[in-house]
Design brief:
alpha+beta; six-stranded antiparallel β-sheet; 29 strands
Length: about 775
């Protein structure tokens, strides 16, 4: 092409998506708003070659803004427009300052013919982009360092993040003169809320309104991060197309102040009655935190460069200081939690039982994280505080957390039902969940609950942006036509957990785990010492019982001989005393034999091997057959017993003891004993010790005898502890069940009893080799 011809291919604006494309919210996200091919008409844009200063592209309004037709500029050097002094100024700026993707207000530029314009310049992708706007001749507010200094002092006097945002809205309105200035904060789901507002007195308030994420598409949010100020001086403007010498890569206007905006956004503003708008980005840690959004309703509003620069400067100060305001609030909250945490540690250290420590009223577990409910799940037992799901629901939640997320240090969500659907049944009390395991096994945990937010969110229109028909009948995505507040009940969503709350929960977890580990080490030491002491006690009992038998036997024998030799010569009371002495020595010998047997159980090495319990039971029943027949006791064995690894002789003692007791403690006319086992799959309704191996087979000996009172169930296993008179039910030493328990425990098992007075007893035990 020659200088008299140029390409209008960029003048077509933004094409709509094809009619065949699905019409949904993602269409907005695919609009190429960074390459619109046009600008706003209140300025002109020139694209220059960096070394030759040739005009490669320009906006079609060059005559209106610059006084030269496009044909006079395209393909020519910038010298046709600027005096040599102006060109030299541009060269100096480009040489001294990094302007790559960094727009800079360069200076007030004088064109040939004495026309003065404000110039903004930046580099992008190897080209120089020069934006020129006529200087404002209005009596605009003079914004200088003193004005900005006063604004910053007023901002700094605020004592909270919300008050800070409110003050920022007032300062921007004062400088810009817009009818409405709002501070708009984004939520984690992309939606936004107006958290501060300054407005003209006759305008409807927008404070508290929520706007759906679709109002600001993703690519628009990205541009807000790149370019911190966006002015639409006249929302009814007609876009000015860009002209180029030849077709090339589409011009990226991401950093251009004059960049034309989406027709959909202009329609959006028109539906709100907005004639001019300005957006100032609030960016934290490289992410778009929110916007200072300005609306003007009476007419167009073009701010002078110094006013725009002041507003952008305030936006940057808000971005920086808002972080410190929020951090200060977080620090106050963190300090409160730290104080509570210190008190928690004192209480936990003071209590011997971890469960009691965590659920005691002084701990105030609910206040720790401002929760309405909490649960402590220890060893499969839920202890509930405040408003919570049921115990069964809490245990099911803990099981899901362990199955789906273990190992984890903390789990937090404000929408539990979206991740754990069955929790929707109790979302009114537990939509928000924060859980921390307090044991290395992940089987124990503390869970805090928050209910769904009991409020309705007021939207600035229907968040389900509609698809409408254009005038020619084609489907297209348009902005909302009505901005009446549309109310949507927020179900299943709780107030989000703050990062400081998550940190506090983690700190509590570490404290509890650390305390538990220290106690475990102490217990391990105590257990080792106890094991040594028990071994010494067994040795002492064995030696003592063995050595006592000889003198006791002598006393017994001499007393018996004395009765035989001198019985006829003794007075009746003397003879009775000797008979009592003989009887007492017999009883003492029986007790010593029991003690000797008990101590031997602790000392002897068990011979563990595969054992057929049916053979063991047969031998025991043969031994006890005379007593069974004498007392007319029937024996039931519903099915064959399984093989196990055990010391056959010792297990025989266990069966012998339990069956002998079942025979002895029965006064029914029809007596029976049942022996059997319960597999791991059959024990659903059976109450078992909390730490019992879930895979262990449970053996039992059951009778219909006299039963045992509930308060005595543990006492029956204490050595020499009898529940009846010495001679009742055939007498005995009270050591048999103690010996049986020791044998079971040395097999790695447990023994316990269930009983009902008058109905009989069931002794259960496990053997785990």
């Amino acid at each position: 092409m020659n200088n008299n011809e140029f390409d209008l291919s960029r003048s077509s604006g933004i094409d709509l998506l094809p009619v065949s494309s699905p019409i949904d919210l993602s269409n907005c996200d695919r609009e190429p708003i960074h390459v619109p091919g046009s600008i706003q008409p209140h300025g002109a844009l020139l694209v220059l070659h960096e070394t030759t200063w040739q005009v490669l592209e320009l906006s079609a309004n060059s005559f209106e803004i610059l006084g030269l037709e496009p044909r006079a500029l395209l393909g020519n050097a910038i010298s046709v427009l600027l005096e040599p002094e102006g060109i030299e100024q541009l060269r100096e700026v480009l040489a001294q300052i990094d302007l790559e993707a960094n727009p800079l207000y360069a200076f007030s530029m004088q064109l040939k013919g004495d026309k003065r314009l404000d110039a903004v310049i930046h580099r992008h992708k190897g080209r120089v982009l020069l934006e020129l706007e006529p200087q404002q001749n209005t009596e605009a507010l003079s914004v200088d360092v003193r004005v900005l200094g006063a604004s910053l002092r007023r901002l700094n006097r605020t004592d909270s993040a919300l008050a800070f945002c409110q003050a920022a809205a007032l300062e921007v309105q004062t400088i810009s003169g817009f009818d409405r200035v709002m501070v708009y904060r984004f939520a984690s789901d992309g939606s936004g809320e107006v958290i501060a507002e300054e407005r003209r007195a006759d305008l409807e308030p927008f404070l508290g309104l929520h706007y759906p994420a679709s109002d600001i598409p993703q690519q628009a949010r990205a541009l807000y991060v790149l370019n911190h100020l966006r002015l639409i001086a006249d929302a009814t403007y007609t876009p000015v197309p860009m002209l180029a010498l030849e077709v090339s890569e589409a011009l990226d206007m991401s950093y251009c102040f004059l960049r034309s905006v989406s027709p959909i956004h202009l329609e959006y503003l028109a539906n709100m009655g907005v004639k001019a708008s300005m957006s100032i980005s609030i960016v934290r840690d490289g992410q778009l935190w929110g916007l200072i959004a300005c609306h003007h309703y009476s007419d167009a509003r073009l701010l002078a460069y110094n006013e725009r620069a002041a507003c952008e400067f305030l936006g940057q100060m808000v971005s920086l200081q808002l972080a410190s305001k929020e951090q200060a609030e977080s620090a106050d909250y963190r300090s409160k939690l730290k104080s509570l945490s210190g008190r928690f540690l004192e209480l936990i250290e003071r209590e011997d039982d971890l469960k009691e420590a965590l659920i005691q009223p002084d701990l105030q577990l609910l206040d720790y994280l401002e929760a309405t409910g909490a649960a402590v799940d220890l060893h499969g037992e839920a202890h509930l505080l405040g408003k919570t799901p049921t115990g069964i629901q809490v245990l099911r939640l803990a099981e899901w957390l362990t199955d789906e997320h273990a190992p984890f240090e903390v789990f937090a969500t404000e929408r539990l039902s979206s991740r754990f659907p069955e929790s929707s049944a109790y979302q009114n009390v537990a939509s928000g969940v924060l859980a921390v395991p307090v044991s290395r096994s992940m089987q124990d945990m503390v869970i805090w609950f928050r209910p769904e937010v009991p409020q309705t969110v007021t939207w600035g229109g229907d968040p389900n942006k509609p698809v409408t028909l254009s005038e020619n009948g084609e489907s297209r995505l348009t902005p909302r036509k009505s901005f009446d507040a549309w109310r949507e009940d927020v179900a299943g969503c709780a107030i989000a957990w703050k990062s400081v709350e998550v940190e506090a929960a983690l700190e509590l977890r570490r404290a509890v785990v650390s305390t538990a580990l220290r106690r475990a080490e102490m217990l391990a030491g105590l257990n080792a010492e106890l094991t040594r002491s028990n071994a010494e006690l067994d040795s002492f009992a064995y030696v003592a019982s063995h050595d006592l038998k000889e003198p006791l036997r002598g006393i017994h024998n001499y007393s018996t001989l004395l009765l035989e030799d001198a019985g006829d010569r003794l007075e009746p009371n003397e003879k009775a005393k000797l008979e009592t002495l003989v009887r007492l020595t017999q009883r003492m010998e029986t007790l010593i034999d029991s003690l000797l047997l008990f101590s031997r159980v602790g000392r002897v090495d068990f011979r563990l091997r595969d054992c057929d319990l049916n053979n063991v039971l047969t031998d025991v029943l043969d031994l006890l057959k005379p007593r069974l027949e004498q007392d007319k006791v029937s024996v039931r064995v519903p099915r064959k017993l399984p093989h196990t690894v055990a010391d056959q002789a010792r297990i025989g003692e266990v069966f012998n003891n339990l069956i002998a007791n079942a025979i002895k403690y029965n006064n029914k006319a029809e007596r029976w004993i049942e022996l059997g086992y319960i597999s791991a799959l059959e024990r659903q309704q059976l109450a078992v010790p909390p730490d019992l191996n879930p895979d262990a087979t449970i053996f039992y000996v059951r009778d219909n005898g006299i039963g045992i009172a509930t308060r005595h169930l543990e006492n029956v296993f204490r050595i020499f502890k009898r529940l009846h008179a010495r001679d009742a039910f055939g007498g005995g030493t009270g050591a048999g069940l103690t010996i049986a328990r020791k044998i079971v425990e040395r097999h790695g098992g447990q023994i316990w009893v269930e009983s009902t007075i008058g109905a009989g007893s069931s002794f259960y035990f496990t053997l785990e080799g």
